[in-house]
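Support case: user asked for a sample of complex input and structure output to validate their parser. Sending the pair below.
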Amino acid sequence: MTVSPNPKDNPDADTVWVEHVALIDSVPRWLAMLGLAVVVILIWDLATARLGWVSPIILPSPGETLSDLIFVGKNLLSGGYMLTALWTTTRTVFWAFLIAAAIGFSLGVLVGETKFGERAVMPYLVAIDTMPKVAFAPLFIAWLGFDIASKVALAAFIATFPIVVSTAAGFYAASENERMLFKSMGANRWQTLIRLKLPTGLPYIFTGLKIASVGVMAGAITGEFLGGGKGFGALIRESASMLDTPRVFSLILYLSILGLTLFFLVAQVEKRLVFWNKADRPGGVA
Amino acid sequence: MTMAGPRPLTAGPAAQLRPVYQIERLSKTYARNRLTALTDVNLTLNKGEFVSVVGSSGCGKSTLLKIMSGLLPPSAGRVVLEGRPVTGPRDDIGMMFQQATLLPWKTTLQNILLPIEMRKGRAAAKVAIPRATELLQLVGLGDFAHVYPSELSGGMAQRASICRMLISNPAVLLLDEPFSALDELTRDFMNMELQRICTEQHATAFLVTHSLAEAVILSDRILVMKPRPGRIVEEIIVDLPRPRQLEMINTPRFGEIVAHIRDLLGKEAFQ
């Protein structure tokens, strides 16, 4: 037997080889995020300020956006008119979320727990859910006026459906074994609902609440676009109509803080309440 | 050996026998598909006895267990536990399932107290804490009372579910393939634990299983069931000495009994 010239092919030697490790695996998360941001901003800067490929009316340069961000930030911190607008939108989002959670949860229990809900109510909910819900905005304005109420209604309307579906799914989630256990312990329907189906369904319900937290933001801003009022959506629309794109960008960025806050509040409550669910949350974000 | 005749009275000296669970002429027909799941099932569980039922899937053993646990009504026949007909779930029936089915949001102790809490409320559950702690010691989980189920291994979780079954001092233990989800070594060990616990508690136990070896090593009697329609075709008295040990698996007598049951079931399986 001839010894192969490559020691890697020698069957008598120790089988030594190294598993390939992707570069991204050795980079810490914050560095990867920062790196991507730097690259995007650099390309953005090149395309706008340096090379002038894109007109500033369409896309402002990073520098312009930053200075406008600072201006808006100052206005917000000094309690200017923008803070009033942000507060209006915050109230809209808050009430819409509460209403959507209450109605969504109740309908979800009805659909998930009763035959009547499953057979009679669910088909209508699916039918309404398939409609473009934004199209209802003019109706809400006609019914509730140009004040905050019509925006709350639209935002709640959009956010209700994911909560209904996830709550119903959550109430189905208890396994056959668990149901049998409760039956064998002589548990009545109410006990099974409160002690088994509700806790089992909580992770599902929170998934719905997180989707809803994004939905109320979209609903509130759409409502403010279409129905005017004094919210952040109205500010954005005004700036856009004056082709003040840097302002639009910085308003959207500040608005995203509101959305993120709501999302993380929901996620924090979930962490406390569903402490036993250690299902992998990708990247620890949600 | 064809159909089982009247029950042989050879299980032990007649003076010691006290019937706990009695089933006579039990049959179950599912109205939905007019399927006869069980026909003319007769069995008696005596105090302190360990009886197993084996059979291929679809032979009605799960249906039998559900009727015995009061989860399913019989179509005809008598189903009597401790002199009272079983007409629904009862707190003198202890059940154990394939999965431990511990609630992940409750600690081991809270899980064990759950049956008490359900039937008699939180105050009664509080009173039962010493008893639950005692049971945890019995199954070797003394240090795990305040741990959540996610931190228990499969075998430990099943031990906790044994405690939950025993907490209300049931007259009969109904075991539905309790260790079939565990690996084989753990399973053997848990079977020995089960024997020890049943002996210490003088429990009357009824086990449904797929494993012939498990049935033989644990049981005083084995009922062999066959499907279409589900019925008991033979009762086998396991005359291996007690306490049973795993090494008995290697004895000729053990082999004979397993071979006999396999022969009985095999004939049906290929028809």
